[in-house]
Amino acid sequence: MSVTGPAGFRAAGVAAGLKSSGAPDVALVVNDGPVQAAAAVFTTNRVQAAPVQWSRVAVGDGVARAVVLNSGGANACTGPEGFLDTHRTAEHVAEGLGCSAGDVLVCSTGLIGVRLPMDRLLAGADAATAALAGDGGPAAAEAIRTTDSVAKTVHLERAGWSVGGMAKGAGMLAPGLATMLSVLTTDAVVEPATLDAALRHATRLTFDRVDSDGCMSTNDTVLLLASGASGVEVSAAELTEAVTAAAADLARQLVADAEGASHDVAVTVRGAETEQAAVQVARAVTRSNLVKAAVFGNDPNWGRILSAVGTVPVEQAAFEADEVDVSINGVLVCRAGGLGEPRELVDMAAAREVLVEIDLHAGQAEATVWTNDLTHDYVHENSAYST
Amino acid sequence: MSVTGPAGFRAAGVAAGLKSSGAPDVALVVNDGPVQAAAAVFTTNRVQAAPVQWSRVAVGDGVARAVVLNSGGANACTGPEGFLDTHRTAEHVAEGLGCSAGDVLVCSTGLIGVRLPMDRLLAGADAATAALAGDGGPAAAEAIRTTDSVAKTVHLERAGWSVGGMAKGAGMLAPGLATMLSVLTTDAVVEPATLDAALRHATRLTFDRVDSDGCMSTNDTVLLLASGASGVEVSAAELTEAVTAAAADLARQLVADAEGASHDVAVTVRGAETEQAAVQVARAVTRSNLVKAAVFGNDPNWGRILSAVGTVPVEQAAFEADEVDVSINGVLVCRAGGLGEPRELVDMAAAREVLVEIDLHAGQAEATVWTNDLTHDYVHENSAYST
């Protein structure tokens, strides 16, 4: 049911001709209330696409009536003209809905450094407005796909209220050009501040821990809209639980559909002094091309894992190199920084999922970061993207 | 002429059966003096191979008589036993040469997490000692190859003295498993402290700026030995110039022979506040898989370059995203963070070398970091290394 699972939302997805394939490329999500609370998390890249610049300001008051999203062009690095394009898009959609442009958020995804064909985009926005429907969530999810092989949606029911969502992205919150966008919706009755806190908690533990290729995009945006249409007031804890679960579901779908990947890799670091230290060590492993290529080769090459762990500066994570254990798919191949069980005992070919567990023996904190293997298809897809 | 170009050195390379291919795998370099000054730079990885642990201590007094190197096994993550293996190797070579074990440095390269076959290694060391010759430099360079398609050597003549050297590595100072090793030699008359300063200056500007796949190894070692055999006293400036030039030559050879690469990419960042800021920005670009895959596709995808630049935290490099210029092979494809010349004007297919120039317009400092493209062959070679 995607973003229209919760009550109070309509959505649509249409083909506006932004994609040369003719596939759907403009989506619209509208919050019919009774309230229009909104929260957002954006890329921390210093190069920010025009829609990110716009939406960051527009969502600043915690209110949004609608989100218009397009694939087929990121509208990033397009200068003041690109920003005006985004502004025009918001104004155009606002006119159609009879609201203020400041209550229309904009998301774009696609190639960087190319202006959007505004005539097509605005006509597409009109068509989407006309097509808005209470069951339009799946169509909206279709329209935001770029290299995604499937649309990603979620709908989690709670007691009288629910959280829905859609996402696009070929692997991570920060997937570079194959930007990640997500719109989450709920019909719970919540304050904007609670909404914001729940979304930040959720993204920190889910989308932020999906690290397909280590590249951070100019367009990444995660939005959470609340309509209050269920009439059910929920606590901050209840909301946070459901939003985090929905985001985790979508994040896992992104990993499973990462560009050209043949393995999903969960790197869990235990025994860290702090959660942040565990995340740093896990990221060092998930960003090692040598580790990722070895996983592609179904090669339990724990030396590369330990070598990646060793690149983390001591001020970021305290541990002794000769105390670190590494397991791959449950086999303790490295014990205390040295040889453990024979690597031949590890079977990596049997399943798409690979579990790397690292114990630093330096504390009680832990964290898991997901990544994918580095494959021929990744190289192929990413060497041919804009050509 | 490799390491035996300068006077006062003998070297050898032999096949000891460490490599299953039967190719040469044990090298020995001996400094016959009259002095035996030595300096070294090692990997900063917290996981350090046994030979790194040994050599770091052994070279601490600024004196070394010999270096024994092996390919066919990194002797990393091999615990106390692995360290004893390294110690035995040094003692064995020292006996053969009639010197102290503390004056024998050891370097190893190959798979992590596997013990070395000591009987073969020690027999190989004996054979290398017997084969030592004043023209043995090229044979030594052959014996340290792993995935290198060619041996890398250099010899730069100066006024009555010279600098020689050899290196192995498939791309960088910190290439993960395909470790980088280099031995530089000179017959100049210099103090150990001068030698050390010259080597640190040289590695900082050369090997440290070669960043083929962003992975840092457990075994990386660069050694500089001085025999004083020319009788020519040189200034610190003269030595630094020659050692830096020799290291730059070898570093360039490493890039040109990087595993599976089809392009060498020089990323030059100008207009930075500090040299360190320029290096940080350049590294963000050279470590982006999306940029590297685009280069493989001969795709002047400057959006990915700008997106990588934008990931550098402001505390590491001051710049405004909308002031950054990017040129690829001389074409200014991105002006002031936005569209510049048409990307179609860029020809990347014509040459192996690709020049990316980034102007931050934030100062006067600059730096260049080299990398390679991300290719199918890189994935292939690195997914099949240990299997």
TrEMBL record, chains A, B:
What HAMAP family does the database record attribute to this sequence?
A: ArgJ
Q: Which CDD domains match?
A: OAT
Task: Write the lineage as a comma-separated list.
Answer: Bacteria, Bacillati, Actinomycetota, Actinomycetes, Micrococcales
Pfam families associated with the record = ArgJ
Outline what the protein does.
Answer: Catalyzes two activities which are involved in the cyclic version of arginine biosynthesis: the synthesis of N-acetylglutamate from glutamate and acetyl-CoA as the acetyl donor, and of ornithine by transacetylation between N(2)-acetylornithine and glutamate.
Q: Which GO terms describe its molecular function?
A: L-glutamate N-acetyltransferase activity; L-glutamate N-acetyltransferase activity, acting on acetyl-L-ornithine as donor
Its family remark reads:
Belongs to the ArgJ family.
Where it mainly occurs, coarsely classed, is cytoplasm
Keyword Transferase included in the entry's annotation: yes
What are the site positions for Cleavage?
A178, T179
- Report quaternary structure and partners: Heterotetramer of two alpha and two beta chains.
The UniProt entry's GO CC annotations, sorted and at most eight, read: cytoplasm
| Tagged with keyword Cytoplasm | yes
A single GO BP: L-arginine biosynthetic process
Instruction: Give the species this sequence originates from.
Output: Actinotalea soli
Protein's cellular compartments: Cytoplasm
Write down the chemical reaction(s) this protein catalyses: L-glutamate + acetyl-CoA = N-acetyl-L-glutamate + CoA + H(+); N(2)-acetyl-L-ornithine + L-glutamate = N-acetyl-L-glutamate + L-ornithine
Q: Which UniProt keywords apply?
A: Acyltransferase, Amino-acid biosynthesis, Arginine biosynthesis, Autocatalytic cleavage, Cytoplasm, Multifunctional enzyme, Transferase
Site (described: Involved in the stabilization of negative charge on the oxyanion by the formation of the oxyanion hole)? T109, G110
Which residues does UniProt call coiled coil? none
Q: Output this protein's name.
A: Arginine biosynthesis bifunctional protein ArgJ
Annotated positions binding substrate:
T146, K168, T179, E259, N382, T387
